[in-house]
Design a protein that fits this description.
Blueprint lengths: L1 E5 L6 H12 L3 E3 H11 L2 H12 L5 H11 L9 E4 L5 H13 L6 E6 L2 H9 L1 E4 L5 E3 L19 E2 L6 H15 L1 H8 L3 E5 L4 H13 L1
Parallel strand pairs: 1-3, 1-4, 2-3, 4-8
Antiparallel strand pairs: 5-6, 5-7
Helix pairs in contact: 1-9, 2-3, 4-5
The structure holds BIS(adenosine)-5'-pentaphosphate (AP5).
């Protein structure tokens, strides 16, 4: 299954992708995670992306398309993948179409998570992740079962993203509405779009997505 999760920053793309990885045994391809790894490793891409990401702006289509083109050619993507944070511009959507078409493949489902702006601010400002395994948490909506201990790996180290602050979020939301929201119309035009109420509880959002994927 080849799937795109669309939605504004904090909509729950990463949270839902993690459940779908387990349910369908296909990898999550998060361009945000790949870029953060490149920044941490100090690669050329990381050096170019660092300041752009910290400002909440979009990294260039050329860089992102090259990263995804290389990643979807890996053997673990042969059975499918979940795109989280890509495509984010009409140019990226067209590039993805051609990358897959060259391999005789296509995207099967596009799922857009709909969440109010006020809720996005609350979600982004309360988000943190395990520093070791990357499991995502929230101060209010998703706490570890044992306080201060990661449910998944038992680590006691957690971290917060540098771009998760109210000022940068404004820029990220601007970029979403200007450059990414047009993809809703794009995929609707191709009759691939499914929308899900992302304001529901995390488990209910997962159920709604699985109903669409299993149909
Ligand atoms: P990226 O890492 O993709 O960030 P984003 O799109 O802003 O999305 P987030 O990861 O912030 O949110 P999410 O939807 O995954 O929410 P989550 O599940 O964590 O991109 C970062 C930067 O990289 C970009 O700004 C850009 O610079 C660059 N970049 C990346 N891709 C690019 C591309 N294709 N082109 C150009 N540049 C690119 O949930 C958030 C919180 O809410 C969590 O704490 C979670 O526990 C909680 N939560 C989730 N669901 C619910 C729910 N239903 N109810 C209550 N709480 C919930």
């Amino acid at each position: 299954m080849r799937l795109i999760l669309l939605g504004p920053p904090g909509a729950g793309k990463g949270t839902q992708a993690k459940f779908l990885v387990d349910a369908y045994n296909i990898p999550q391809l998060s361009t945000g995670d790949m870029l953060r790894e490149a920044v941490a490793a100090g690669t050329e891409v990381g050096k170019q992306a660092k300041a752009i990401m910290e400002a909440g702006k979009l990294v260039s289509d050329d860089i992102i398309n090259a990263i995804i083109s290389e990643r979807i050619s890996q053997p673990d993507c042969a059975r499918g993948f979940i795109l989280d944070g890509f495509p984010r511009t009409l140019e990226q959507a067209d590039a993805l179409y051609h990358m897959l078409d060259d391999k005789g493949m296509k995207i099967e489902k596009v799922i857009a998570l709909e969440v109010d702006d006020d809720a996005l601010v609350e979600r982004i400002s309360g988000r943190y992740t395990c520093a070791d395994c990357g499991e995502g948490y929230h101060d209010k909506f998703k706490q570890p079962a044992k306080e201060g201990v990661c449910d998944r790996c038992g680590s006691t180290e957690f971290k917060r993203r540098k771009d998760d602050n109210p000022e940068t979020l404004k820029t990220r939301l601007f970029a979403y509405y200007k450059d990414t929201a047009p993809l809703i119309g794009y995929y609707h035009a191709y009759r691939m779009l499914n929308t899900v109420d992302g304001m529901a509880d995390i488990g209910d959002v997962t159920k709604a997505i699985r109903t669409i994927l299993d149909a």
